[in-house]
Amino acid sequence: MALEKLGLFAYANDHPALSAPAAARELKLRPDLLLAACDFLAEENIFEKTGPDTFRLAVDYHLVLEAQNNYFLAYKAVYESFAELLDGSKRYGKDVVRDATRLGFGTRRSIPFLVQRFKELGIRTALDIGCGRGNFLFALAEAIPGFRGIGIEIDRATVAFAEERIETSPRRESIKVFEGDAAHPELFPKEAEAAEAFYGVAIFHELKKSGKLVPAFREYKKKLPRAKFFLIEFDTPPWDELLREPDTQLRHEAAQYLLTHYFTEQGLPQAKADWVKTLKEAGWDVRAVHDDLPMRLTVFECE
Length: 303
Prior knowledge:
Arc Repressor Mutant, subunit A
C-alpha cells in the first residue's frame, strides 16, 4: 500500500523495464530501500527481476494488490491480537472483530466466470446467498439483459447499505436484498423461489463448524428443487496436504487463509474433494468443478 501511495506501481506500469536506481531518483526515494522492496515484490511474484537492479510488472497489480491489501486490512485487528488470542485473554467476536467492509475483493475475480456461465445457460433470475453489498448482483444485472437478482444477507447494516446503493442505481428495479440467514433457506421470502440459480461465494464454509452445513444444503434442495447451485469457495487443503504442494504464492495464500480461519473460529475452508463429498452427502449432483479461476477459487456447479 505504501509503494502504491508513493507511485511505484504507476511508474512501473509506465516503464516496462524498471530501473530501481532511476525510479528512486524520479520518485525521490531511498535507492537502497527501494531496491529491497522491489526484490521483495519479485519474491511475491508481483515483479519479475530482469537484472541486478531492473524489474518489470508480472501481474495486473490492481487486481492482485486490491485483494491482498483488503484481506489483510479486514483481519488486521486479528493479526495484531495473535498473542492475546493464543493465551485466551481475548476472544474473536467479542474483543476482536474483522472489518467486513474490506472483504470480498478477492472473490470478485469469479464474477467474469459466473457472468459467462449464466449467459451460456440462459439464467436470468438468481439468488445470491450472503450477498454483502451486492457486488455480484450488480455485475450480473449490468451484463445480462433482463436479469433479476435477490440477495440474502445476515448483517442488518450491510443490508441497509445495499438498499441505499440499489435506490440510487439504474438497476433498482432488477435487484432486491433481504435480511436472512444462509443456514435457514426455509425462512427466505417467497420471491426467492423464482430463482433459476443460486450461488454462495466463500460463505458456506462458515456453517461447517456448527454442523449446519449438510442440513442447510439439504434444505436448499427442498426450497429450490429446480434451481442450479453454484458453490464458490477457495480450494483450501488441510495443513498436511498443503505442505506437500509446491512452494508457490498460491500455497502461501492458502496457508494464510486457513490460519486466519482458525484464529477467527469460523468454519474451516475445505479442499475440492471434501466439498464434492459434502455436496453429494446433501443430495446435490455435482455436474462440474471449475478450478481454473484465479487465487484457487473453485466453482462447483450442481443440480
